[in-house]
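Quick log. Single chain, no ligands specified.
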Amino acid sequence: MRIVSLLPSATEIVCGLGLRDQLVGVTHECDYPAGIVALPKVTRTLIPHDAASSEIDTLVREQLSTQAALYSLDLQVLEELQPDLIVTQALCDVCAVSESEVKTAAGLLASKPQVINLEPMCLADVMQCIREVGAATARNAIAETYVAQLQDRVEIVAVRSKSVPEAERPSVMLLEWIDPPFSAGHWSPELVSLAGGREAIGIAGRRSVTTSWEKIVQADPEMMMIACCGFSIARTLEDLPTLRSNPGWTDLRCVKAGRVYVVNGSDYFSRPGPRLVDSLEILAHALHPSIHPLPAGLDAAERVET
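-> predicted structure:
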Protein backbone atom coordinates (compact mmCIF):
# COMPACT_ATOMS: atom_id res chain seq x y z
CA MET A 1 0.00 0.00 0.00
CA ARG A 2 1.18 3.51 -0.87
CA ILE A 3 0.09 5.98 1.82
CA VAL A 4 0.02 9.78 1.71
CA SER A 5 -0.53 11.68 4.96
CA LEU A 6 -1.95 15.19 4.85
CA LEU A 7 -1.39 16.09 8.49
CA PRO A 8 1.46 15.57 10.96
CA SER A 9 -0.63 13.66 13.50
CA ALA A 10 -1.69 11.16 10.83
CA THR A 11 1.95 10.70 9.85
CA GLU A 12 2.74 9.83 13.45
CA ILE A 13 -0.18 7.40 13.60
CA VAL A 14 0.90 5.68 10.38
CA CYS A 15 4.45 5.28 11.67
CA GLY A 16 3.20 4.16 15.09
CA LEU A 17 1.40 1.30 13.35
CA GLY A 18 4.66 0.18 11.76
CA LEU A 19 3.81 1.49 8.28
CA ARG A 20 6.73 3.88 7.79
CA ASP A 21 7.93 1.94 4.75
CA GLN A 22 4.52 2.37 3.06
CA LEU A 23 4.39 6.12 3.61
CA VAL A 24 5.29 7.78 0.30
CA GLY A 25 4.25 11.42 0.81
CA VAL A 26 3.72 13.86 3.68
CA THR A 27 2.96 17.53 4.32
CA HIS A 28 5.49 20.33 4.51
CA GLU A 29 4.89 20.36 8.30
CA CYS A 30 5.52 16.67 8.98
CA ASP A 31 8.73 16.38 10.99
CA TYR A 32 8.32 13.34 13.23
CA PRO A 33 9.49 10.61 13.56
CA ALA A 34 13.06 11.01 12.35
CA GLY A 35 13.53 10.57 8.62
CA ILE A 36 10.07 11.73 7.64
CA VAL A 37 11.33 15.09 6.39
CA ALA A 38 13.09 13.34 3.50
CA LEU A 39 9.81 12.14 1.98
CA PRO A 40 8.15 14.03 -0.92
CA LYS A 41 6.03 16.99 0.19
CA VAL A 42 2.49 17.06 -1.17
CA THR A 43 1.37 20.36 0.38
CA ARG A 44 2.49 23.96 0.54
CA THR A 45 1.41 27.02 2.49
CA LEU A 46 0.88 30.69 1.71
CA ILE A 47 1.80 31.73 5.25
CA PRO A 48 5.21 33.48 5.22
CA HIS A 49 7.70 31.62 7.40
CA ASP A 50 8.68 34.81 9.18
CA ALA A 51 5.16 36.20 9.73
CA ALA A 52 4.34 37.67 13.14
CA SER A 53 1.67 35.98 15.24
CA SER A 54 -0.81 38.79 14.64
CA GLU A 55 -0.19 38.56 10.87
CA ILE A 56 -0.81 34.81 10.91
CA ASP A 57 -4.02 35.38 12.83
CA THR A 58 -5.15 37.96 10.25
CA LEU A 59 -4.38 35.59 7.36
CA VAL A 60 -6.34 32.81 9.07
CA ARG A 61 -9.37 35.05 9.68
CA GLU A 62 -9.30 36.22 6.06
CA GLN A 63 -9.26 32.59 4.96
CA LEU A 64 -12.29 31.81 7.07
CA SER A 65 -14.22 34.78 5.67
CA THR A 66 -13.27 34.37 2.01
CA GLN A 67 -12.64 30.60 1.79
CA ALA A 68 -9.24 31.36 0.26
CA ALA A 69 -6.89 28.47 0.93
CA LEU A 70 -3.81 28.85 3.10
CA TYR A 71 -2.73 25.27 2.41
CA SER A 72 -2.92 23.56 -0.94
CA LEU A 73 -2.03 20.28 -2.57
CA ASP A 74 0.87 19.89 -4.97
CA LEU A 75 -1.06 17.95 -7.57
CA GLN A 76 2.00 17.16 -9.65
CA VAL A 77 3.72 15.42 -6.75
CA LEU A 78 0.49 13.63 -5.83
CA GLU A 79 0.11 12.34 -9.37
CA GLU A 80 3.68 11.06 -9.34
CA LEU A 81 3.07 9.21 -6.07
CA GLN A 82 -0.28 7.62 -7.08
CA PRO A 83 -1.25 6.67 -3.50
CA ASP A 84 -3.65 3.90 -2.53
CA LEU A 85 -4.65 5.67 0.69
CA ILE A 86 -4.81 9.34 1.65
CA VAL A 87 -5.20 10.21 5.32
CA THR A 88 -6.56 13.71 5.90
CA GLN A 89 -8.80 15.67 8.28
CA ALA A 90 -11.92 17.79 8.38
CA LEU A 91 -11.38 19.08 11.92
CA CYS A 92 -9.66 22.40 11.27
CA ASP A 93 -10.47 24.73 8.39
CA VAL A 94 -7.12 26.49 8.47
CA CYS A 95 -4.38 24.03 9.44
CA ALA A 96 -4.59 21.64 6.51
CA VAL A 97 -5.83 21.21 2.96
CA SER A 98 -9.61 21.46 2.66
CA GLU A 99 -11.61 18.25 2.54
CA SER A 100 -13.20 19.21 -0.79
CA GLU A 101 -9.81 19.78 -2.44
CA VAL A 102 -8.58 16.41 -1.24
CA LYS A 103 -11.63 14.58 -2.56
CA THR A 104 -11.42 16.36 -5.90
CA ALA A 105 -7.73 15.51 -6.27
CA ALA A 106 -8.30 11.88 -5.27
CA GLY A 107 -10.97 11.56 -7.95
CA LEU A 108 -8.49 12.64 -10.62
CA LEU A 109 -5.81 10.11 -9.71
CA ALA A 110 -5.46 6.92 -11.70
CA SER A 111 -4.85 4.97 -8.49
CA LYS A 112 -8.33 5.97 -7.16
CA PRO A 113 -7.11 6.12 -3.56
CA GLN A 114 -9.28 5.59 -0.52
CA VAL A 115 -9.59 8.79 1.52
CA ILE A 116 -10.15 8.66 5.25
CA ASN A 117 -10.91 11.75 7.34
CA LEU A 118 -9.77 11.99 10.94
CA GLU A 119 -11.78 14.39 13.08
CA PRO A 120 -10.92 13.92 16.78
CA MET A 121 -12.34 16.25 19.42
CA CYS A 122 -11.19 14.38 22.53
CA LEU A 123 -8.64 11.81 23.63
CA ALA A 124 -10.98 8.88 22.99
CA ASP A 125 -11.49 10.14 19.43
CA VAL A 126 -7.73 10.12 18.89
CA MET A 127 -7.63 6.47 19.93
CA GLN A 128 -10.46 5.76 17.51
CA CYS A 129 -8.53 7.49 14.73
CA ILE A 130 -5.68 5.06 15.30
CA ARG A 131 -8.15 2.20 14.94
CA GLU A 132 -9.54 3.73 11.72
CA VAL A 133 -6.10 3.95 10.16
CA GLY A 134 -5.45 0.41 11.34
CA ALA A 135 -8.64 -0.80 9.69
CA ALA A 136 -7.82 0.97 6.41
CA THR A 137 -4.38 -0.63 6.33
CA ALA A 138 -5.30 -4.13 7.57
CA ARG A 139 -3.49 -3.50 10.85
CA ASN A 140 -6.48 -3.93 13.18
CA ALA A 141 -4.72 -6.10 15.76
CA ILE A 142 -1.62 -3.90 15.78
CA ALA A 143 -3.83 -0.82 16.19
CA GLU A 144 -5.62 -2.34 19.19
CA THR A 145 -2.31 -3.19 20.84
CA TYR A 146 -0.98 0.31 20.17
CA VAL A 147 -4.13 1.93 21.56
CA ALA A 148 -3.95 -0.27 24.67
CA GLN A 149 -0.35 0.82 25.29
CA LEU A 150 -1.28 4.50 24.99
CA GLN A 151 -4.35 4.08 27.19
CA ASP A 152 -2.25 2.35 29.86
CA ARG A 153 -0.04 5.43 30.04
CA VAL A 154 -3.08 7.69 30.30
CA GLU A 155 -4.51 5.54 33.09
CA ILE A 156 -1.27 5.68 35.05
CA VAL A 157 -1.46 9.49 35.08
CA ALA A 158 -5.17 9.47 35.89
CA VAL A 159 -4.72 7.11 38.86
CA ARG A 160 -1.88 9.20 40.30
CA SER A 161 -3.94 12.37 39.92
CA LYS A 162 -6.77 10.87 41.97
CA SER A 163 -4.54 11.25 45.02
CA VAL A 164 -4.55 15.04 44.59
CA PRO A 165 -7.25 16.66 46.78
CA GLU A 166 -9.64 18.96 44.95
CA ALA A 167 -8.33 21.96 46.89
CA GLU A 168 -4.81 21.27 45.59
CA ARG A 169 -5.79 21.10 41.92
CA PRO A 170 -4.59 24.39 40.44
CA SER A 171 -6.55 26.31 37.85
CA VAL A 172 -4.68 26.14 34.53
CA MET A 173 -4.72 28.46 31.55
CA LEU A 174 -3.62 26.44 28.53
CA LEU A 175 -2.78 29.19 26.05
CA GLU A 176 -2.85 28.12 22.40
CA TRP A 177 -1.90 31.49 20.90
CA ILE A 178 -0.52 34.74 22.29
CA ASP A 179 -1.37 37.48 19.81
CA PRO A 180 -4.35 37.46 20.11
CA PRO A 181 -4.82 35.09 23.06
CA PHE A 182 -6.58 31.78 22.37
CA SER A 183 -7.79 29.42 25.05
CA ALA A 184 -7.26 25.77 24.17
CA GLY A 185 -10.31 23.58 23.57
CA HIS A 186 -10.79 20.15 22.01
CA TRP A 187 -8.82 17.58 24.05
CA SER A 188 -6.68 20.05 26.03
CA PRO A 189 -9.07 20.67 28.99
CA GLU A 190 -9.39 16.90 29.29
CA LEU A 191 -5.60 16.61 29.55
CA VAL A 192 -5.59 19.27 32.26
CA SER A 193 -8.16 17.34 34.28
CA LEU A 194 -6.34 14.02 33.88
CA ALA A 195 -3.10 15.70 34.97
CA GLY A 196 -4.65 16.95 38.20
CA GLY A 197 -5.64 20.49 37.31
CA ARG A 198 -8.72 22.55 36.50
CA GLU A 199 -8.92 24.29 33.13
CA ALA A 200 -9.57 27.98 33.79
CA ILE A 201 -11.28 28.92 30.52
CA GLY A 202 -11.17 26.27 27.79
CA ILE A 203 -14.06 23.84 27.39
CA ALA A 204 -13.47 20.17 26.61
CA GLY A 205 -14.83 19.06 23.25
CA ARG A 206 -15.27 22.62 22.01
CA ARG A 207 -13.07 24.49 19.54
CA SER A 208 -10.26 26.73 20.69
CA VAL A 209 -11.42 30.33 20.70
CA THR A 210 -10.10 33.86 20.85
CA THR A 211 -10.15 34.96 24.47
CA SER A 212 -10.00 38.54 25.69
CA TRP A 213 -7.14 39.43 27.98
CA GLU A 214 -9.70 40.76 30.43
CA LYS A 215 -11.21 37.28 30.70
CA ILE A 216 -7.81 35.78 31.45
CA VAL A 217 -7.19 38.37 34.16
CA GLN A 218 -10.62 37.62 35.62
CA ALA A 219 -9.89 33.87 35.61
CA ASP A 220 -6.54 34.59 37.32
CA PRO A 221 -5.05 31.11 36.70
CA GLU A 222 -2.64 29.56 39.17
CA MET A 223 -0.62 28.07 36.33
CA MET A 224 -0.20 28.96 32.66
CA MET A 225 1.00 26.49 30.03
CA ILE A 226 1.81 28.18 26.72
CA ALA A 227 1.58 25.79 23.77
CA CYS A 228 1.29 27.98 20.67
CA CYS A 229 -0.14 25.95 17.80
CA GLY A 230 2.60 25.15 15.29
CA PHE A 231 5.33 27.01 17.21
CA SER A 232 8.56 25.71 18.71
CA ILE A 233 9.67 26.88 22.15
CA ALA A 234 12.13 29.33 20.60
CA ARG A 235 9.45 30.83 18.35
CA THR A 236 6.99 31.07 21.23
CA LEU A 237 9.53 32.88 23.40
CA GLU A 238 9.72 35.62 20.75
CA ASP A 239 6.11 36.53 21.61
CA LEU A 240 6.54 36.63 25.37
CA PRO A 241 7.17 40.41 25.42
CA THR A 242 3.70 40.82 23.90
CA LEU A 243 2.22 38.67 26.66
CA ARG A 244 4.11 40.50 29.40
CA SER A 245 2.94 43.88 28.07
CA ASN A 246 -0.71 43.11 28.83
CA PRO A 247 -2.19 45.10 31.73
CA GLY A 248 -2.36 43.09 34.93
CA TRP A 249 0.25 40.54 33.83
CA THR A 250 2.38 40.91 36.95
CA ASP A 251 -0.70 40.55 39.16
CA LEU A 252 -1.68 37.10 37.88
CA ARG A 253 -1.30 34.31 40.42
CA CYS A 254 0.66 32.16 37.95
CA VAL A 255 3.12 35.02 37.37
CA LYS A 256 3.57 35.76 41.07
CA ALA A 257 4.18 32.08 41.76
CA GLY A 258 6.56 31.64 38.82
CA ARG A 259 4.32 28.99 37.32
CA VAL A 260 4.34 30.03 33.66
CA TYR A 261 5.64 27.35 31.30
CA VAL A 262 6.31 27.00 27.59
CA VAL A 263 6.23 23.80 25.56
CA ASN A 264 6.71 23.02 21.90
CA GLY A 265 3.18 23.58 20.62
CA SER A 266 4.04 22.08 17.26
CA ASP A 267 5.05 18.75 18.81
CA TYR A 268 2.61 18.69 21.72
CA PHE A 269 -0.99 19.62 22.52
CA SER A 270 -1.91 20.80 18.98
CA ARG A 271 -1.25 17.45 17.25
CA PRO A 272 -4.13 15.03 17.87
CA GLY A 273 -2.03 11.90 17.58
CA PRO A 274 -0.02 9.55 19.81
CA ARG A 275 2.04 12.39 21.31
CA LEU A 276 -1.01 13.79 23.05
CA VAL A 277 -0.12 11.17 25.66
CA ASP A 278 3.36 12.71 25.86
CA SER A 279 1.65 16.08 26.27
CA LEU A 280 -0.36 14.71 29.19
CA GLU A 281 2.76 13.38 30.90
CA ILE A 282 4.64 16.67 30.43
CA LEU A 283 1.69 18.66 31.79
CA ALA A 284 1.19 16.32 34.74
CA HIS A 285 4.86 16.62 35.71
CA ALA A 286 4.67 20.43 35.57
CA LEU A 287 1.52 20.45 37.69
CA HIS A 288 2.49 17.88 40.33
CA PRO A 289 6.16 16.89 39.97
CA SER A 290 6.16 15.03 43.29
CA ILE A 291 3.62 12.46 42.09
CA HIS A 292 4.14 12.56 38.32
CA PRO A 293 7.74 11.76 37.38
CA LEU A 294 8.73 12.77 33.87
CA PRO A 295 9.09 9.68 31.66
CA ALA A 296 12.49 9.04 30.12
CA GLY A 297 12.94 10.66 26.75
CA LEU A 298 10.58 13.58 27.36
CA ASP A 299 11.71 17.14 28.00
CA ALA A 300 10.04 18.98 30.83
CA ALA A 301 8.00 22.10 30.11
CA GLU A 302 10.28 25.13 30.22
CA ARG A 303 9.61 27.53 33.08
CA VAL A 304 9.88 31.12 31.85
CA GLU A 305 11.02 34.24 33.63
CA THR A 306 7.94 36.21 34.65
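The longest strand covers residues 171-177.
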